[in-house]
Structure formats: C-alpha cells, structure tokens
C-alpha cells in the first residue's frame, strides 16, 4: 500500500471505525505497547501553538517507541525563500512522518502532495481530523454505540465543526450544525457529509435555533467563538454567538444522559458556562485525554509499515 495522509477525515474514511476501536485498545494497553514504532521519527511542524496537539503527539510517538522532532515553522526556511515542495522533499529523506499544524489548508495540502511520507494534520483552517477522531472515541466510551445518537454543535462553523460533520456522517450519528447564518460550516463539506450520512442511515442538518436543535440531544458540543487568526472584535463575537452558549438552560432540554464536549481551550462564560464545563455532564477532560490515544491510533496505522 502506498503512502497515505490524514489531512481530511475523508482521507481515512473507510478506516475510521477501526481507528476508533484501535484508539480505545491502545488506551487500555498504555504502558504495554512493545515499541511498535521503534526507530521511527515524526517531524512536528507548528505555525500555530497548541498545548494538546504538541503534548499528545510527542507523548504518542514516544510511547509507541519512536521519536518526535519539534519544528517551529517561523524558524524554518519554508515560506522564507524555500518552497513548500522543496521542504516536503527534504523532510521525506529525514523522517518517517510529518505532523503539520497550519494556518492555511492549501499549504497543508501541498505539503501532503509532495512528501513521500505520511502527513497528518494537527489542524488547518478547513479541518481538524485528529480532534474529530478523539471526539468519536469519547462518544463510543460514553455510549458504546453511535447509531441513533444526536450531536448538536453550537457556535462558529469552523474547522472543528467541518471535521465533525464528516466523522458523524461516517459513524452514523445525526448531527445538527447550529450556527448563525453568517458563520455556518463549509457548504461543500456540509453537502458531502449529508450524502455520507444518508448512506449510513443518519442525517446532517443545519439550524440557527439552539432551543429547537438541542431538544433530546445526546451530545452538546462547542468551540471558542473566536478562532486563532480570526480578527473579529470580542464584543461583536459575543453579540453574534450569545444565544449559542452551552448553559444550564440548553442542557435542561437535552437528553437526561447528555454529554457536553469542548475541544479546548475554553473561554468560560462565553461559549460555555463554568457550571456546565465543571458539571456532571461534562466529558471535556476525557475528550482532551483521548487526543493522545487517537493520535497513537493514527501514528500506528500510518507509520508501522
């Protein structure tokens, strides 16, 4: 089998259920992996800083027996006299895989095109596939099954929302993207996800009404209202998204066993209240932990051979 990337959820669409199960298996076996990636090096390229992405990938490759190499893109020649294509070719001679956390999907896509080793997205402005995988792991841990579940995403239709649309569609979860009309997720991704969902017996729905969308929800999910690189003034964002805040009122109309998710970092009392994120329905920190195990599953699958 040739080189594979994980830049979009769709890059590993057929393997998504197996990745979820592998992440859960590796989580249970933590400390007993027998170094399946011994001798493998993962280059980690960062344009955007991150607590969870850097820590989880570094620990994941290390616990699988490999080595992580941190690269600050601002201190590299890529984009400063050297083309992405040349950087991709050179890195391919040194390392066994590249994790790239980028501002621009086009840069991510070009890097993935020109490397001869797997490229894994640590986030770009279009998708965040590893986050979506960790989210599916968390949902399976809490409910055991996906079919018939209803996930409501509230707030900014950003990269996290885009990848969730694909992941929910693949796993057969009904998903409502509940966002202001001016901040809906990518239209092409919405349409593509809806087609995949139909094949799997679920639905992808758009909504602008949080109180209607959240009725009977099994999962309430949100993200920050102002993503990194977004220059929207805070006051304007608060005014636009206030009705989409996950709070006790919205939680009260969801399913009694509803779980609340947030990919972090959270701006408490903006997109989510302190009482909810610290309450009994919150699985936010389980979700954060599962980034480690989801990334192990991806690294194992892409780098082992």
Describe this entry's structure for a reader:
This protein has 305 residues and is α/β, with parallel strands linked by helices. Helices cover 43% and strands 14% of the residues. The chain is built from 12 helices and 9 strands. The chain has helices spanning 16-28, 51-63, 84-94, 105-114, 129-143, 159-171, 187-199, 210-213, 234-241, 248-253, 274-277, 284-303; strands at residues 41-46, 67-72, 97-101, 119-121, 150-154, 174-178, 204-207, 219-222, 259-262. A 5-stranded parallel β-sheet has the order 7-6-5-8-9. A 4-stranded parallel β-sheet has the order 2-1-3-4, with helices on both faces. α4 (105-114) links the parallel β3 and β4 (119-121). It is globular, with a radius of gyration of 19 Å.
Amount of beta strand: 5-15%
Average pLDDT level = 96
Number of helices: 12
Q: How are the strands of the largest sheet arranged?
A: 7-6-5-8-9
Largest sheet: 5 strands, parallel
Number of strands: 9
Which stretches are low in confidence, meaning pLDDT under 50 for 5 or more residues running? Answer: none
Using the CA coordinates, give the radius of gyration.
Answer: 19 Å
The H-and-E topology, N to C, reads as HEHEHEHEHEHEHEHEHHEHH
- Helix/strand-derived category reads alpha/beta
Q: Whole-Å distance between the termini?
A: 9 Å
Shape: globular
Report the helical percentage.
40-55%
- Determine the oligomeric state from the structure: single chain
